[in-house]
Amino acid sequence: MRHFPVYELYFFDFDGVIIDSVNIKTQAFAKLFEKYGQGVVEKVIKYHEINCGVSRFDKFEYYYKHLLKKEISIAEQKELSVQFSKIVFDKLCASEEILGATGFLRQIRSRDGKAFLVSASPIEELKKILSYKKLDKYFVEVFGAPQKKDEIICQIISAQNVLVSDCVMFGDAENDYMSAKKNGIDFIAINPMNIEYFQRMRIPIFNNFKEYMDDIIK
Fold first, then answer.
1. Which residues touch 88 (CB under 8 Å, ≥6 apart)?
2. Which whole-number Å values give the CA distances from 45 to 1, 25, 29, 177, 211, in the listed order?
3. Which helix or strand (DSSP H or E) is residue 188 part of?
4. Three-class HEC string of 141-184
5. In 73-101, which positions are buried (b, 16+ CB within 10 angstroms) versus exposed (e)?
6. pLDDT value at position 4?
7. Which pLDDT belongs to residue 27?
8. Which fold does the domain 4-20+96-216 belong to in CATH?
9. CB–CB of 113/9 below 8 Å?
10. In the prediction, which pLDDT does 5 show?
11. Residue 188 exposure: Cα atoms within 13 Å on the Cβ side
12. 114-122 and 141-145: which strand pairing?
């Protein structure tokens, strides 16, 4: 795998990669489903933590079908998403960045690289948080739900007319890795919850971007 100065396109997940927000969303899912009992809440949390890169809408559908044993309508999904946003928005705006994230984004921009944000969060919510935290200026473009990550990456690579070998994705979840793998691009795990999975896949793992930058300039 080639290191930072060589890539042309940089793809980033958001939650847990750019900002330290995974626990905030874990608590929000628990809050939404607490009325169904502790047993359901524990399963909700476990599924969320294993599938951090999956959109909340897909998670709602899974929770209803597999845990509550009932169908969920589009209207119900939207209402749950609104409730979820109300719980997390202010906390996300106040959250800390993953160490070194902003500095790394500045480095990319200073070297004429292009950074793209590819998240499972709803796009409008994502843009508001980025604007509040003054991070939007570092990204050429921002993408979120309902678009799928692997499809977004494919479209960007094609539109930018670059080789897949000139692209890399930074993520923290299996879904992020699979999105990169489907497109044949390099992947680096940042602050992953399921470290064992990435170790089995022999993926480079770093706790934060400072650690990554320190490693590549040794």
1. 21, 24, 25, 28
2. 34, 10, 7, 21, 28
3. strand 186-190
4. EEEEECCCHHHHHHHHHHHHCCCHHHEEEEECCHHHHHHHHHCC
5. eeeebeebbeebbebbbeebeebebbbbb
6. 52
7. 95
8. Rossmann fold (3.40.50)
9. yes
10. 53
11. 23
12. parallel
Cα 106 to chain center, whole Å? 19
Say what the pLDDT of residue 2 is: 46
What is the pLDDT, as a whole number, of residue 29? 96
d(CA 121, CA 15): 8
Looking at the domain 22-94, which fold is it? DNA polymerase; domain 1 (1.10.150)
**What pLDDT, on the 0 to 100 scale, is given for residue 1?**
46
Provide CATH 1.10.150 ranges for the chain. 22-94
Query: Among residues 68, 79, 81, which one has the least CA distance to residue 36?
Result: 68
Q: Enumerate residue ranges in the chain where pLDDT < 70.
A: 1-5, 218
Report field, pTM of the whole predicted structure over 0.85: yes
- Amino acid 11 reads F
pLDDT at 144: 92
Q: Which residue type occupies 160?
A: Q
- Alpha helix segments (H runs only) across the chain: 22-33, 38-50, 56-62, 74-94, 101-110, 123-132, 149-160, 174-182, 195-200, 209-216
